[in-house]
Specification:
The complex is a heterodimer.
Chain A lengths: L6 H4 L7 H18 L1 H27 L32 H35 L11 E5 L8 E7 L9 E12 L2 E8 L10 E2 L9 E5 L2 E8 L5 E2 L6 E2 L5 E3 L8 E7 L2 E14 L6 E5 L23
Antiparallel strand pairs in A: 1-12, 2-3, 2-7, 3-4, 5-8, 6-7, 8-9, 9-10, 11-12, 12-13
Helix pairs in contact in A: 2-3
Chain B lengths: L1 H26 L1 H9 L13 H20 L9 H10 L4 H28 L8 H23 L4 H15 L5 H9 L6 H33 L32 H5 L5
The chains are: A alpha+beta, B mainly alpha.
Chain lengths: 316, 266
Amino acid sequence: MEDPRGDEQRHQPPPSLWPVGFAVGIVCLLVGLIVSWPAAAVGAAIAVVFGFLWARDVVAAGRGPALPGPGEPEAAPTAPAIPAHKGEAAMPEPEPAERFPRSVFLEMSTLGLGGIIGGIVTVPAIGFAVLPAFLKQHSPEIDLGPITDFPEGQYVVATFLRNPSEGEISRRTAYIRNNGMRSGTPSFTCISNRCAHLGCPVQPGGPVFDSKKQTVKTKNGEVDLIPALPAAGFICPCHGGAYDQEGNRTAGPPVRALDRYQFLIRDGHLVLLGTYSVSSVSGSGAQAKIHRYQLTGPGQHIDAPESWLYPVQPPH
Amino acid sequence: MARKKSDRRRQLERAAMYPLDWLEERSGLVGGVRYFLFRKVPGDTNWFHTLGSATLTAFLVQLVTGVILAMYYKPDPKSAHASIDHITHEVTLGWLVRGMHKWGASVFIILMFMHMGRVFLFGAYKYPRELNWIIGVLLLATGLFEGLTGYLLPFDQTAYWATVVAININGTAPFVGPFLASLLRGGAEIGPDTLARFYSLHMLLIPGALLGLITLHLYLVIRLGVTSPPWSSEAAGSGRPPEPPPAQAGLVRPRPRAAVKGRPTE
């Protein structure tokens, strides 16, 4: 037999106005804290009095036998219950074809509507998190100043802000060598210092003449130009990748030559554009033949069969 | 006289327990916590079985110290390193909280590996606990990702170049690698958004994922019980509820003992 004192009955509190009075007292107290102390005191008094009355009621209800005792059970039907498997069905058996499709329809429409609402909320949020990493990527033009600052045949370490509005985080370094004239146009070698292994900054393998440092003011802010003599090419401090003076890999883990900057000369100024990847360079200086590829992340092959692993590049 | 005193005591006890009873009646939480804390474990568990809860403790330490550090840290390339400097040298006890977070990160990772080793060597990954091993592996990967994203935040030379290398290692993954790298950087180049992105991953997304996975992990530990060591003389499952318990015994509601004994053996 089931306990007649069900969970619903047991702690049903009696109807009471005390909580309302208590709430009024609290409101009065809080308003009084801002407005005036006497009002706060009145509010506190109301809250205490009504709180006490409420608590007394609750305790009394919990203690007293305010429940129907076992002596007065609910009126039970006098006739013996008919076993469920013998009597008639309490309700006519629903026609499956009648009822089932509607519950399925409601189920599906709930799921579908929920999915649509969830999608409307989620898709833009995910797009906001993901798409900016791939859209509106562009390589800014970097003005390095007059080409006369680059002595012929000598490497110069140029450090500059790729995007001055982003600040120091966009500081990049390029190794620039003026190769002199090639059939009437100036020729430059503009090597990116990003190692083709995992992107550490490669260093010149030879002296860097800090005392001859020159700071040029250009549209990109201040550009530092330091002459250097990378007799041993370029060397990466992270994992020992080594390159010759044209950026060809000579030793270590890099998978290709150093990336290079595209450049143009405008109003006598050397202007760097975006970078591109290089598998190898044959020849040197103005006569160099550069095997050029689309810009690819460090560590990715661009010419061997391994390059098939990287068929598509995100926009750079 | 004595009877009156015991009445009084009973009344006092009832009054003291009233809040707990109130909570239990409305939520079942007290019973749940009691079931969690006093559930049966094999008699021959040993100290190696504490590595899991040690890992959880390390995670909670990271959670608390991380929340405090976030009150002082500024995820902006121009001020990130200065704010770390400020925390370490100027904020009262900042050196301690940052030290706990920094070294606690290594402790967390090391404990994860040790816990994994214990589970492997004890064969605790076997039926019916394979799913919990899989969740554990996801926890390990997520935890390592938490370490990777946290490493950038001090924003010194080590942090910066280590992150450059880590992102580019991701970039060498076949096919998706270049996109993964761009996604992590928030663009084709490391820029002002990269640090904020790592910060958001480190303090919001990944800890949330970790908390969810830990909840699943613990649920399965409680549901399936703790394994005895391989040298245990007890046959697995003897003298304690058979594993896995039937579906009606939920996470928080202990089965009456009679139901366990009366259950037919397979």
